[in-house]
Amino acid sequence: MNRDNNQEMFPVVDEEGNITGAATRGECHNGSRLLHPVVHLHVFNRQGQLYLQKRPAWKDIQPNRWDTAVGGHVDLGESVEQALRRETQEELGITDFTPERLEHYVFDSARERELVFVHATTYDGDIHPSDELDGGRFWSTEEIKENLGKGIFTPNFEGEIERVQVLRIRILG
Description:
The chain has 5 helices and 9 strands, in the order E-E-H-E-E-E-E-H-E-E-E-H-H-H. By secondary structure, it is α+β, with helices and mostly antiparallel strands. It is globular.
C-alpha cells in the first residue's frame, strides 16, 4: 500500500517564503501549523478545460477528492521552480511546459499551514498520471461550477478558484 513519507524534510518558511527552519512532513501535518511551501500547477487545454487529479484513498490529506492538476511540497534545498518541474514530471509525466506564476498565498486549515505558489499553463500533450494519483481528467468550466460546494473537490482547490483572480475569471467567468 502506498503512503506518504512522514520523514520527508520540508523547509519551514515565513509568509514571504524565507526559510526559517526545517521539519518533517509528519511534523508539518500533525497540527503544528508550521508554514511550509507547496507548488500548484493548473493545467488548461486550448479548449479552456482544466485538468484535475483525483487524490487516492491512501493520502493523509483530502483523500478521494479532486484537486489541482499538480500539487506538491517544496523539498528542503529545492527552489519553487525546481519543485514545480519535479512534481509536474512525477505526477503527470509532463516535462515540456511553460508555467505562468500567478501569485502566492497562505492556506490555513486545522491540520496545516501552507505557503502556496500558484502557477498555470496551457498544455495539449499527453498526460500520464502516476501511481501517486487515482487518475485525472479534463473538466469543463460548467462541470466545475456544478460541483462546487458538494465535497467533490478539495477545499484548497475551491478556495484557490475564489482567491486567485486569474483562475476565478478563467473558471467562473
